[in-house]
């Protein structure tokens, strides 16, 4: 069945997308997969969900994969000195690539910050502004959850539960005794 054009109705969150929708379990064993997932969690903590773009997500995935591959290479070569020397060049390339990726992430993050946005404000003004923005995001999240709760309750409107069960009356009588 062909995919419908446009953005999906329920877009997965970046963490879900990176962890659950990419077939990394086909590439890594269980221990490596655990390391990968923990690295992704650590890297994602540096970003607000709504400021992540696809380039950032690609870089985070590449960083985590490179780190796991680096550990794999070092683990495989730890018993054999000759192999360890051969692997060191690959490890060095991975580290340089990670350094480039981190610089790229930093540059994009720096570009998102408007230097004139808070120009001329005192620290109190900055804190109040940040707090106001944070409260607005939390309020939007709360409204979203309330809307979701109302939808769930609306679906259960005609639900009677066990109100008419004979066992309910027995249980009620036992409580009274």
Task: Characterise this structure.
The chain has 177 residues and is mainly α. The protein folds into two domains: 14-113, no CATH class; 116-177. Helices cover 68% and strands 0% of the residues. The chain is built from six helices and no strands. The mean pLDDT is 80.
Set down the secondary structure blueprint:
Blueprint lengths: L13 H7 L9 H15 L9 H23 L4 H32 L10 H33 L10 H11 L1
Helix pairs in contact: 1-2, 2-3, 3-4
What's the short story on this structure?
Helix content is 68%, strand content 0%. It is an all-alpha fold.
Number of domains: 2
The Rg value, from CA coordinates, equals 26 Å
The helix-strand sequence is HHHHHH
Shape: flat
Number of strands: 0
Estimated structural class: mainly alpha
Descriptive labels:
mainly alpha; 177 residues; 6 helices; 68% helix
């Amino acid at each position: 069945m062909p995919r419908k054009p446009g953005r999906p109705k329920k877009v997965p969150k970046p963490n879900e997308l990176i962890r659950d929708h990419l077939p990394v379990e086909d590439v890594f064993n269980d221990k490596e997969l655990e390391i990968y997932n923990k690295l992704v969690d650590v890297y994602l903590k540096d970003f607000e969900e709504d400021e992540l773009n696809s380039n950032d997500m690609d870089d985070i995935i590449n960083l985590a994969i490179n780190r796991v591959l680096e550990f794999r290479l070092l683990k495989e070569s730890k018993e054999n000195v000759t192999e360890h020397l051969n692997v060191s060049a690959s490890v060095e390339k991975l580290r340089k690539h990670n350094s480039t990726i981190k610089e790229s992430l930093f540059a994009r993050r720096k570009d998102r910050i408007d230097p004139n946005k808070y120009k001329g404000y005192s620290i109190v003004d900055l804190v109040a502004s940040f707090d106001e923005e944070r409260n607005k995001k939390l309020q939007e999240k709360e409204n979203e959850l309330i809307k979701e709760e109302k939808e769930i309750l609306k679906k259960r409107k005609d639900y009677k539960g066990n109100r008419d069960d004979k066992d309910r009356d027995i249980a009620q009588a036992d409580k009274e005794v």
